[in-house]
Specification:
By secondary structure, the protein is of the alpha/beta class. The protein contains seven helices and seven strands, in the order ββαβαβαβααβαβα. β6, α6 and β7 form a beta-alpha-beta unit.
Length: 252
């Protein structure tokens, strides 16, 4: 796959394509360990947003809808080369919104839409606003990251690390703060919604609001932990993804 937008961390299998969308401030490598925990027959690719790692010198997007449009355009090129291949999207936190908006764009195009969405750490956009992020300055952004991710607290005490990660974080939180839900028809794709039972950003009840955005099956999976529960439960999350993909394969 020759694309500046996608990274692979495992050998591609012949099974479904799984496209993973990182959280705010995150990069493709956030999904390295999950990709390695998934069955070898899958082809797992991870989105690399501009403004981080090997795309550090590129200007990051500050508009979430435009970001989804750019990913959808690039992914459509990949899918056009093998139009019959089933695929699914996985997003965590901000990545859930980007994955959802990408799915809407792909479903409206000439190619088949995704079979299933895996939406983690986020409620549906019409029930879970991100508008308050538009008021955040840099100090607020860093405080929010510390609140959500205990593992990052010591790293964010290092000024050099802060200087490196802040441009992408600033852009992502601006994209979240300016994002506005645009009503549309529910997707035909099934959904697996994943959430930590003590996530300070989204409750289990809010996670269930995705049900109104799909005409397919919507399953909510609850895991112990906070906003970044998935990195502490890789085997269980991989099992949930595998179960969802196998269910779609059986249905088709």
């Amino acid at each position: 796959m020759n694309s500046t937008w996608f990274r692979r961390f495992t050998t591609p299998g012949n099974g479904p394509l799984l496209v993973c969308f990182p959280h705010a401030g995150g990069s493709a490598t956030a999904y390295r360990t999950l990709a390695q925990a998934l069955p070898a027959d899958l082809d797992v690719v991870c989105v690399q947003y501009p403004g981080r790692q090997d795309r550090y010198l590129e200007e990051p997007f500050t508009d979430l809808t435009r970001l989804a449009g750019a990913v959808a355009e690039e992914l459509a090129r990949v899918l056009a080369a093998d139009p019959g291949r089933p695929y699914a999207l996985f997003g965590h936190s901000m990545g859930s919104l980007v994955a959802f908006e990408t799915a809407r764009l792909l479903a409206a195009g000439p190619l088949p839409g995704p079979r299933r969405l895996f939406l983690s750490g986020r409620g549906a956009p019409d029930a879970h606003s991100t508008a308050h992020f538009g008021l955040y300055d840099d100090a607020d952004v860093l405080a929010e990251v510390r609140r959500l991710d205990a593992a990052s607290r010591s790293m964010l005490d290092d000024p050099d690390i802060v200087e490196m990660v802040l441009p992408a974080l600033r852009a992502d939180y601006r994209a979240l703060g300016t994002y506005r839900w645009r009503a549309g028809a529910p997707l035909t794709a099934a959904m697996t919604v994943l959430v930590g039972d003590s996530d300070p950003m989204v409750t289990v009840e809010q996670a269930g609001t995705w049900r109104s955005h799909s005409r397919g099956d919507v399953t909510v999976k609850v895991f112990p932990g906070g906003h970044f529960y998935l990195f502490d439960h890789l085997a269980e999350v991989a099992a949930a993804v595998t179960e969802g993909l196998r269910a779609e394969a059986a249905a088709s």
